[in-house]
Design goal:
The protein is about 50% helix and about 10% strand. By secondary structure, it is of the alpha/beta class. Helix 3 runs parallel beside helix 8, helix 5 packs parallel to helix 9 and helix 6 packs parallel to helix 9.
Length: about 290
């Protein structure tokens, strides 16, 4: 379940690609030219082990060129109290139903998978399924040494703060929580069950995805994305397509600006026909792989 494993930043089939050949050996970086500026798109992994991320040569040039950095959310201005308040407001069912009741006929399967993963699902008994899914993945990845502190966004943010670059965000923390909290209950159940399945073997579930990211293998990432969401089109629409459309519109506004930007978002937002490069190409721009 690579997408679920890769997306948990804020809780601490080859498909056609647009212009530009894939560049092997380094994570994906795209450049989009505006009238007077450039917007660079870099594909991130939100949680990594210490030392797994470095600024490769093309990313160094893009970072140096950019006056401002765009992340999925502006973590530099994220208030811990705001995070706690937003999470509490959305993670608990407003009708007071517990996790077992919300899981319905899938409750027994969830408990079995949790036991196999060595996770006490009872500790999440008052949470909604989507939140429980994120929590179990966070636990599983932490056991393997993956942390947000070593993820791409955190490293980029720390350097930008040191260098005095402006840090901005496409979404608020509540926007990100709402994308999952707004899922229909059957999709939330599926989300938790898949998360529990991966939690029992996180290294295996994440390995191929990380290898493809490190090598900049867009085709392999696109296949991972397609395989992941093939049976869950509504989940794909909510988590990927809808958000990419909003971000593409915001990036188009940036392309009418006078300064350059480095955009850092989850790497699966950059691949396939619904990825940001493809959406920007459909709007008349020519993204180039660097």
């Amino acid at each position: 379940m690579p997408r679920i494993l890769a997306m948990v930043a804020w809780l601490c089939c080859a498909l056609a690609l647009p212009a530009g050949p894939a560049r092997a050996g380094e994570p994906a970086l795209w450049q989009v030219h505006g009238t007077r500026n450039s917007v660079y798109l870099f594909g991130s992994v939100h949680l990594l082990k210490p030392g797994e991320f470095r600024f490769h040569e093309a990313l160094e040039r893009a970072y140096a060129d950019a006056e401002a950095i765009y992340l999925e959310i502006d973590m530099d201005d994220l208030d811990p109290l705001e995070l706690a308040s937003a999470t509490a407001a959305r993670a608990v069912d407003p009708e007071g139903r517990g996790l077992d009741e919300l899981m319905g006929p899938d409750a027994a399967t969830a408990r079995e998978r949790a036991a196999a993963a060595g996770i006490d699902l009872g500790l999440l008994g008052q949470m909604e399924p989507w939140f429980a899914g994120l929590a179990v993945v966070t636990i599983a990845l932490a056991r393997e040494g993956y942390t947000a502190a070593d993820g791409v966004e955190q490293r980029v943010q720390e350097r930008a703060v040191t260098d005095g670059k402006e840090i901005l965000g496409f979404e608020t923390i509540d926007d990100q929580l709402a994308a999952l909290d707004g899922l229909e209950l059957p999709l939330q159940r599926e989300f938790l069950l898949k998360s529990l399945e991966d939690a029992s073997q996180p290294a295996e579930a994440l390995g191929k995805f990380l290898d493809a990211w490190r090598e900049g293998d867009d085709g392999a990432l696109a296949r991972e994305l397609a395989d992941e969401f093939d049976a869950a089109p509504a989940l794909y629409r909510s988590l990927m397509i809808d958000r990419n459309r909003r971000w593409a519109a915001q990036i188009e506004d940036l392309l009418d600006d006078g300064q350059d930007y480095l955009v850092v978002v989850g790497t699966l937002h950059l691949v396939g026909p619904d990825g940001l490069p493809a959406m920007l190409e459909a709007r008349g721009y020519k993204p180039v792989r660097r």
